[in-house]
Amino acid sequence: MKPWLALIRPGDWLVMLGSAALVGASIPVFWQGGMADRAIIRQEGRVFAEVDLKARKEFAVSGPLGTTLVAVEPGRARVVSDPGPRQYCVRQGWLMRPGEIAICAPNRVSVQIAGRTRIYDSISY
Amino acid sequence: MTRSATEREADAPGVIRLAVTEEDRRVAWLATAAVGLSLVDAAIPSPLPGVKPGLANIVTLVVLARYGWGTAVWVSALRVLAGSLLLGYFLAPGFFLSLTGTTLSLLTLGLTRHLPARWFGPVSLSILAAFAHIGGQLLLARAWLIPHDGVFLLTPVFAGAALVFGTINGLIAAKLLAEPPPSDSADA
Lengths: 125, 188
What we know:
The complex is a heterodimer of chains A (about 120) and B (about 190).
Chain A: H1 2-5, H2 10-30, E1 36-43, E2 46-52, E3 57-62, E4 67-73, E5 76-81, H3 88-91, E6 101-104, E7 109-115
Antiparallel strand pairs in A: 1-2, 1-7, 3-4, 4-5, 6-7
Chain B: H1 22-43, H2 56-67, H3 69-87, H4 93-112, H5 122-145, H6 155-178
Helix pairs in contact in B: 1-2, 1-3, 2-3, 2-6, 3-4, 4-5, 5-6
């Protein structure tokens, strides 16, 4: 170890520390969309509720077929039950990344996760 | 190349002979070493495309310190060309990523080699060149291959890898440079 350390000159330490700080600082800059902090529940396209993903809560949203139950927990949300025939939105399970969405189309209810910044849920070009 | 491509009296009429200088031989040998290390690089499994040790840069750093920037450019250019031909990605996207990264890191090395040598050694040059390398690749990828800002999501990972591998390569280069230079690298 000693002979290797001798190869590092004073400025090199500076560059190493500076770069490490820069890399550390770059994490929040590039990953700011990475934290899920809100769930947006919509009914018929209108926002039914916008909840901070902090506390445990349940929402009963009524639609044309009946009641859709949505559960919110710290950092995640899901559709617990839905009167729709195919249950796609229920089977999607917990949503925890920004941009993730569960759509219960027959009952016209959707649950979407949002982060601090708007990010895209798909790429098209 | 440092082409002193002079015609000599040809053995037969119509035959042109290229005079090969010592410098040409040296560049060829060093480029061979760099290509060899590129192959080793490619054989090392990587958890993420784009995260590579970049061992060939050790050669670039040593060449830069011993023979100057011009030789380093030649060795790098030959390495990118021959390496891509051997690994089968010549003119594929990977080739242009490699070319962009190498160009930017050579430009960075051209600037940073004027830093006071008492304070900044090969380790500094290596780290800064590694950052320039990955920066250039990310920008090209964003501009051309994946025109979406999602590309930059992996920036912290790439930058971290650049720091780690830049430091290791710089240390190896410094170690090699600390040893006395070979009498003539052409006989390597």
